[in-house]
Amino acid sequence: MKLSHLLLTAAAAALAVQGCKMKSTESAVGGDAASRTYVAPGKYDELYNFVSGGFSGQVAVYGIPSGRLLKVLPVFSVNPENGYGYSEETKPMLNTSQGFIPWDDQHHLALSQTNGEHDGRWLFANANNSPRVARIDLKAFKTMEIIELPNSGGNHSSPFLTENTEYVIAGTRFSVPIGNQESALDNASYKKNFKSTASFINIDKNSGHMNVAFQIILPGMDLDLSRAGKGPSHGWFFFSTYNTEQASTLKEVNASQKDKDFIVAVNWKKAEEYVKAGKAKKMATEYYHNTFNEETHSATSEIIKEVLTLDPTELKDFVYLIPCPKSPHGCDVDPSGEYIVGSGKLAALIPVFAYQKFVKAIEDKAFEGEYNGLPVIKYEAALHGEVQKPGLGPLHTEFDGKGNAYTSFFVSSEIVKWSIKDLKVLDRVPTYYSIGHLMVPGGDTKKPYGKYVVAYNKITKDRFLPTGPELAQSAQLYSIEGDKMQLLLDFPTIGEPHYAQAIPAEKIKDQSVKFFDIAKNKHPYVAAGEKATKVERKGNEVHVYMTAIRSHLTPDNIEGIQVGDDVYFHITNLEQDWDIPHGFAIKHAPTAELLVMPGETATLKFTPKQTGIYPFYCTDFCSALHQEMQGYMRVSAKGSNVPLKWGIGDTAPGAGADTTAK
Amino acid sequence: MNRKLSAFAKVSIFVAIACIIALWFTPMWRIDLAAPQYPEGISMNIWINDVKGDVEIINGLNHYIGMKTIHKNDFKEFVYMPIALGIFCALGLVVFFLNRRIGFYIWTGLLLLIALVSMYDFWKWEYDYGHNLDPTAPIKVPGMAYQPPLIGYKKMLNFEALSQPDIGGWFFVAAALLLTGASVYEWRRAKKMGL
C-alpha cells in the first residue's frame, strides 16, 4: 500500500472514531427549557424553594422555576452579613448545654402542615451535629426558636412532621449511651450501653412554640430518615435505620452485612396515651430552649432539666420493626398514606410496604421474632411488592399525586419514575452527578404540586465554570408534567443541599412582613425617636442608645469612652418603610456588624483596646447620603477626665465651641 | 310672592349635607407618587382633619432636597375646615326651615366659596412646600422647584405625581354640583312662573 493510501485510511478511521463519541452531559436538555424557566424582570417565581444549607448551617431560599437565590436565612451558624449570632440579641439563639455553638450541619427541612397540606406558617430545620431543631417564621423569614435535644448523638432523622403539625420528630443518627455516660468502645459495650432515641417535639398550634413532649428509647442503631403517616396511617411514624448489626467500628463494612435492616414503625398516638396515663419515666437531663421575642427583638435561653422517656421493651405494643433491604435511607409515605417506600441504599430493588397489610400483620401476630426486645413483622406480611431492577443505590422517593413515585439513585446517578400500583419503571433520567435527595413541591404531603422534581446533587463536576478544587453543589430542575421527565435548569446552591421543601408563592408572599412597627418595639434599650437617644455609663459598661434614619446616626459624636469599657451600641432603626435596613459597623470591632431592620433594635458590643478616634458608619447602602451616614467615638485612656458627652449637629460635643479664627 | 323652595331643592339640602358629612369618614384628596424604585407606589391622603398614608416615607425622601416635612399639627386648615363645613351643614338646616330661595342661593354660594378658598389655600401650600427649600439641603438642582400639581399629573425628576380628589372629594364635588343644579332649577322655575 502506498503511503498516501495509508494516511487516507488513518484519517478516515480518526473521523469515524470522532463520529461515535460518547454522550456529553449537556445532551439531555430540550429546546424549550430556557423559556420554561425564564422569569421576566418584574415577574415573580411560581414557588419558594427552601433548601438545606448542609455544612453552612443555614437555609437558602430559591425561586422556582428560575433557580434564583432569594435569601440565605441564618439558622444554626453565625452570619456576619447581618450580625446573627454576633449581636447581643441573637447570641442566645446559639446557646446549648455545651456552650455557644456557632455552626452546624443542616440537613432537612419541613414546612408546617394543616390537614396534610403545606400551610405557609413555619419552616422547621434540623441541626445534625449539635442536636437541635429550629423553627423559622415565614412572615419575617426569621429563626424564632431553637430547641436542643437531650439523649441524642446526632439529629439526622429530623425534622419531619405529622399532618397537622402536632409533632416534629428528631431521631438519633449516632447511638450513644443515654445521659452522656462514658463507655468503652467495642461492639459488646455498644450492644449493651448505646441507644438511639426518637424525640417527639410538640408544636403549639397557635404560637408554634416547641417542647420535647417525650422520647422513645430505641435499641442502639442508626436512625436515618423518617416520615409521618397520613390519612389512614395518621398516628404512625416510620423511621429508616441502618447498623442494626450494632457495630461500633468500620461501619462501612460492619454495618453493611445484614441482608435486611428495619423500618421502625412508631404508633405515636399510643405513645401519647402512655404519656397521658403517666407511664413515661421522668429523667434528669439538661438542654437549652432558645426563643426570639418579636416585641423585644431579643432572644432568651431557658434551661430545661428533665425529659419524659418511654421504653418500648416495657410498653410492648407501640413500636414494631419492618424488615427492609438493605441499609434503608428514605422511608417515604405516598400521598394516600397507604404505601411506605423503603429505599435500601445498598439494595438492588425498592420494597414498597402497604399500611393495611402492616396493620393486619400486627393483628395476625405475623412476627418473625424479636430484635432487642422489639417485635419484628414478617417481611412478606407487610409487603405490597418490590420494584425490580430500578437502578443502583435508591435514596429517597417523592410523589406527584398521580400515582407515580420518583426515586433518586446515588450510585447510578439518576431519577427513576415508577408506578406505585403496579411497581413498573416508567421513565429514567440521568442526573449530573450523584444525586442525594430529590423534591417534588408538596411531594411529602397529601396534595403534591406535581409540576417539577428538583434533584439536589452532591457532586457538581462540570456543571458550572470551574472555581478551583471546590465547586458549588447543584440543584437540577426537571419538568414532570409530561410522561417523560425533562431537564430544564441547573442552579448552584450554598453548602451541601440535602433536602428541601417548596411551596406555591401565593401561600407566603402576601403575608411577608415589610417592617416592624416601631410603636410595638419593646426592646429594653430602644430609642423610639432621636430625642430618646443618650449615652449612659454604669461602671465599666457604657450603653449608647443610638438611632439610624436616612441619612444619619444619632448621636454621631461620642466622647468620654475609656479603654477597656464594654460599650454596647443599641441601634434602633427608625425607618418605617420596606427594605430600608441600616447597617452599623465600628472600626476594629472584632465581632461583626449589624443589619438592623426598620423598627428593630439590635446591639453590638465593643470593648476598645486602645485610645483614639473610632469611626462608625452604616454598612447597608441606604440612600444618596449613605456614605455620609457616619460618626466618631473618642476613646480616652482609662481613668481619663474627659466627660461623657454625645450629640449630633448643634448638640455634638464640639458644636458651638468654634475654635477657627474669627 | 312665592319664595318657597321646591321639593327637589328641599331634598337636595339633605343630600348635600349627607355628602359633606361623608368627609369625616373618607379621605378628601390624594396625591400619588410613582418611581421605578418604588414599585409599590407612595400615596398621601388628605382628610378633613388629618393627613395620612405614606407621609413619613415622603418626608424621608424630601429631606434630601430640603423640602419641609409634613406634620398634621402644622396645618391650621385641619381645625378650620371641619368648623367651616360643620357650620355649612348647620346653615343647611336653617335654609330648610326658612324655606326661602334666596337662602338656598346664598348657601350654595357659600359651598362654592369654601371650595374655592380651599383650593386656593391648597395651591398656596403646595407652592410654599415646593419652593421654600432649606438652603442647607444636601441636593440642590438649579432652577428646580417641587410644587406638586394642584390637580392632575406632573413629572418631577424621576417621580411622577398625580393629584386628584379622593372618595370624600368626589362627595364634595357631588354636593357642589347638586346644589348648583338645584339653584339653576329654582332660578328657572321662579322665572317661568313669573315670580
* Radius of gyration of chain B (Å): 21 Å
User: How many strand segments of chain A?
Assistant: 46
How far the N terminus sits from the C terminus of chain B, by CA atoms, comes to 6 Å
User: Total helix count of chain B?
Assistant: 5
Strand content of chain A: 35-45%
Instruction: Provide mean pLDDT of chain B, rounded.
Output: 91
**Structural class by sheet pairing and helices of chain A:** mainly beta
Shape of chain B: elongated
Tell me the strand order in the biggest sheet of chain B: 3-2-1-5-4
Shape of chain A: globular
Provide structural commentary.
The complex is a heterodimer of chains A (662) and B (195). Chain A has 662 residues and is mainly beta. Chain A contains 7 helices and 46 strands. In chain A, strands 6, 7, 8, 9, 10, 11, 12, 13, 14, 18 and 19 form an 11-stranded mixed β-sheet that branches. A 6-stranded mixed β-sheet of chain A has the order 42-41-44-45-39-46, with no helix packed on it. In chain A, strand 8 (132-137) and strand 9 form a beta hairpin. The model of chain A has no long low-confidence stretch (mean pLDDT 93). In chain B, strands 3-2-1-5-4 form a 5-stranded antiparallel β-sheet. In chain B, helix 1 runs antiparallel to helix 3 (77-98), helix 1 (7-21) packs antiparallel against helix 5 (167-192) and helix 4 packs antiparallel against helix 5 (167-192). Chain B is α+β, with helices and mostly antiparallel strands and 195 residues long. In chain B, a hairpin with a 2-residue loop joins strand 1 (29-35) and strand 2. Chain B is 52% helix and 16% strand. Chain B has 5 helices and 5 strands; from the N terminus they run αβββαααββα. Chain B has one domain (7-192). The mean pLDDT of chain B is 91. The chains are: A mainly beta (662), B alpha+beta (195). Chain A binds chain B through residues 42, 549-550, 575-578, 623-625, 628, and chain B through 39-40, 54, 56-57, 60, 63-64, 138-139. Chain A: Its EC number is 1.7.2.4. Chain A: InterPro entries: Cupredoxin, N2O_reductase_N, Nitrous_oxide_Rdtase_Sec-dep, Nos_propeller, NosZ/Cyto_c_oxidase_sub2, WD40/YVTN_repeat-like_dom_sf.
